[in-house]
Amino acid sequence: MIYKVISSLLKNADPEFAHSIAIKLLKNNILPISLFAQKNSSKLQIKVLGKTFENPIGLAAGFDKNAEIYNSIFKLGFGFAEVGTITPLAQPGNPKPRVFRLSEDIGIINRLGFPSVGLNEVKKTILNNKPTGILGVNIGPNKETVDKIKDYITCFESFFDLCDYICINISSPNTPNLRDLHAKDKIEELLKSIKTKQRELNTKTKILLKISPDINDANISEIANIVLSEKIDGLVLTNTTISRNDNLKSPYKSEQGGLSGLPLENNSNEIIKKFFRILKNRIPIIGVGGVHDGSSALAKIKSGASLIQLYTSLVYEGPLVANKINNELVKLLEEEGFASLKDAVGKDCV
Ligand SMILES: Cc1cc2nc3c(=O)[nH]c(=O)nc-3n(C[C@H](O)[C@H](O)[C@H](O)COP(=O)(O)O)c2cc1C
Prior knowledge:
The protein is built from 12 helices and 13 strands. By secondary structure, it is an alpha/beta fold. Flavin mononucleotide (FMN) binds at residues 60-62, 65, 84-85, 99, 108, 110, 112, 114, 138, 169, 172, 210, 239-240, 260-261, 264, 288-291, 310-313.
């Protein structure tokens, strides 16, 4: 009941204000979230990245930018959480307004531009709040930085021993020139530098790479081959899109920024399939973009994802969305005759 009242109040508030209230409620344990803890079916368990995930539904980057609420997220039934994007220095991000709810389309456009309290603050926060679940840290460069690779290395050095994986985010559309890092020579240089640092630090912390959905087939093939040869541990597919399809109804559809939610779903599934066909399960994919129920989660898994993340459906459906998706997913796996989640991975790609 309390969830319904708060959710409907927040749905009508300014999106960034509503988000800050949600973070405060979760951070200060104002909601009795432990009441909603549920035991996962063993069917949802999956071994990926050398870890056993109790369920495949994770929180996508951007919601817990400064790593304030990941332990509450685990209590809400998420199998893992990715915090960030964290930049080396604190920065305010772009001018407001910069988040728009496309309610008619069940989407969001954001052009936040990595607002971050900076790595020192976030590091302190994580050290004071030991993660009780699987934690990823998503890292990116400051807006003004010319040598972006240096910023990724600085962040990697700061967080590698505080989390289970580091996600290198080269795909936000809201930091000038960031997506240029998808070019073959640039991505090669970036990944080689990170791998060298990983060897120097003698760490087994996994390295994942988060990719844009706005890339062509030739670029997909280049990136897939580079991540294989550089032995990157996984891909996160995808970030938000700068494309707008003609069916969008919301008055905000022409706002600049990255579009997420339902309008992104098919696009991200297609990218996942294309990567999966090349990678052939040698590197796991975390699928993200428009997941909101059991069947959209299963569609991502069948497209080639071993794990899922979501952001926009948490805004539209509220804090019980992970439990809902997990329950629906168990039923769907049974109905479709899959003994486990692993059996369904990539089934639409054959
Ligand atoms: C308001 C907002 C902020 C975001 N911030 C980040 C971010 O800082 N870093 C990042 O890698 N992705 C960020 N994302 C992208 C999400 O992690 C995710 O890739 C995308 O929203 C697609 O998933 P969804 O359709 O479930 O929202 C953000 C998304 C939204 C809606």
